[in-house]
Amino acid sequence: MEAERGSTEPTAQPAAASAAAVSAVLGDDDLLREILLRLAFPTTLVRAALVSRRWLRHASDPAFLRRFRRLHPPALLGFYLRELGAWAPRFVPVSRAPELATAIRRAGAAEGQFFISDCRNGRLLVTDFDPTACRHAMLSPLRPARGKAVLPPAPKRNLIWFFLLEKAAAGDDDGAVAVQMLPLGTTKAKLQVDLLTSGSGAWVVHRTAVIDLPETLPPIAYMLPPVGGKIYSLTKSGHILLLDMAAAESCLLQLPDRVSTKNFTLSCGEEGSVLFLIHAEGYLLSIWQLPTTSGDANDWVLVHAKVHVREACSRRENVMVLAVDDNLEFVFLWLRSSAVLMHMHLQSRSEKVYDELKVRDGRFLDINPFMMVWPPVFPALRDDDNLDGRSLTLV
């Protein structure tokens, strides 16, 4: 009997000591925040927040979320791809992380015949090819319960572009903005620019300006979402047109000295404080940036030079720049000769080739990278709520 009693004590004591150690660690707010910072994805962070109100308080704290974002930027789930003649885009997943499987499945479930006008923060702004009318709508694939939010009918004017708001909240359904342009006068060297926002079933003029153009309004290939009252457009002639609504001025930006071809794309990034230019020549990439608040509209700075695209180099091919994500982490490229679509992660220089997509012509591709929602959506609690996670849908 003595031997039996003695045999149980060595296992009971370490177990108690281990439980005490865990309690001491998780009971320390500083250590708990450091542990939560090690979670790789916002989805995992939201699940951890369901443990208790104390965990939720730390996980949803704005200062903590800023640290979390610096360590773990919103992940690229995949991209929507539409080729010339297709009535609907298809979703191509990029991430294979098990923690993001639900989000990827929902992103791929977006159905309908539509053209994507803008894509950011887990939402799509689409031109919906309804059988009876052409209308604009907002989709939230990661939150399917929201369904499709149809926007008010567009103003009956030409030269209109639609975007999602820069700083719209993750659950904001009234998050669309439109840029309307109306050439004035017989020479069309003067332009009325209206910035409209959607809400309460109508488009409302938020800001307007009459701007003198440096020349007759050139045909615009595409436009970036408005940033702080500034609108950057790429013309079909390969020039960058800047419309400054606050100053009621415009100018054609000079390209960086070493950008000698039209093989580039533009992005204002997620924060909108910098205009990026991503240029390809042969199998090399270069990335330039221009502060959107700079007084010198041509003060370009080279941030990445001679980035080798290994796949193109091995095939002895030139690359064509197609698109970038909001975080400027991934650049999507097309290999001209073999008609292959690929992307590169700029920080690690890792590459992925999509031979299975069989892209016919990259010049007519429409690519929209699709990111995770940020900030993460935490549960809104009442005093009598319990945090067990059973009634919460997580993405």
Automatic annotation (TrEMBL):
Residues 116-378 form the F-box protein AT5G49610-like beta-propeller domain. Residues 29-68 form the F-box domain. InterPro entries: AT5G49610-like_b-prop, F-box-like_dom_sf, F-box_dom. Coiled coil: none annotated. Pfam families: Beta-prop_AT5G49610-like, F-box-like. Transmembrane segments: none annotated. This is Uncharacterized protein. It comes from Panicum miliaceum.
